Amino acid sequence: MKKIGILFGRERSFPEAFVKRVNELAGDDIRAEFVSIDKIFQAEPPGYAVIIDRISQDVPFYRAAMKNAAATGTAVINNPFWWSADEKFFNNALAVKLGIPVPKTTLIPSYEQPTDTSDESFSNLVFPMDWEGIFNYTGFPAYMKPFDGGGWKEVYKLHDREDFFDKHSQTGQSVMMLQEEIVFDEYFRCYCIGGKYVRIMQYEPRNPFHLRYQVETPPSSEALLATIHDYVLKLNQYLGYDFNTVEFAVRDGVPYAIDFCNPAPDAEVSSVGQENFDWVVETSAKYAIERAKEQVDGRDNLTWGEYVREAVNVPAKK
Description:
The chain is of the alpha/beta class. Among the domains are: 2-83, Rossmann fold; 104-180, Dna Ligase, domain 1. It is 34% helix and 20% strand. It has a four-stranded parallel sheet, sandwiched between helices. Strand 9 (186-193) and strand 10 form a beta hairpin. Helix 1 (13-25) crosses helix 9 (274-294).
């Protein structure tokens, strides 16, 4: 019998519903359960064909355990190696290459020097930086946020250069990015599972947290939804995420990808609402079963995005 495990933290409604639904759908040859860890030995399989990883971004011990599981043949969702390497600033650069609109974004070095570095460590960094050029590029108002962070941690709305310097001085060793504000007419948050299943949800980030999925005005057009659907698939297929969300702010009819590095997205019924919750439980359960049936012990069963797979095919330089 193959086992599907889910690794999670404080959330409850999604893991419980996921396990229940897998066990209703899978039949006698596949069973789902909460992952149980009492020891991790190198190169020793954990006993799961598939693991849905919802927490290793916050727990380094779990991330190392997921890499070990992947090395022994577990299909870890999402790929822990790519997840470890990926970050939001790169995502924006990739989107530009794919022709998907994103806000103008620039990388900002940390205010404080990283631990174990000195002034000599920054021989290649011009000081002061070309702040005038940076501010002209993004304009104000703008948002400053961690270049690799998730959620709304350390996110600042900035109104002018003085505001930037004040807020930047509070960010410590965090590497930040400064991003153009998109004043939007519509906003969407989209689940993508398996690089093929998409759920487009209207979303209002300016509402209180528990009301953000409650939007009364319908989408402006089917054509807009079709474009968003295509962008979601393209982004996730290139990045290689099995379970992710993509957010779009629509300005003058153009959907700008705002945030699309959420490999452990919120799936709690209390925040996403019952209909969205039912969809993500049903779809993730079916996809996990698909992956369990395809999984082969001892083989690499991870998803690798088109970006990595295209790079592998590039001839070695002589």
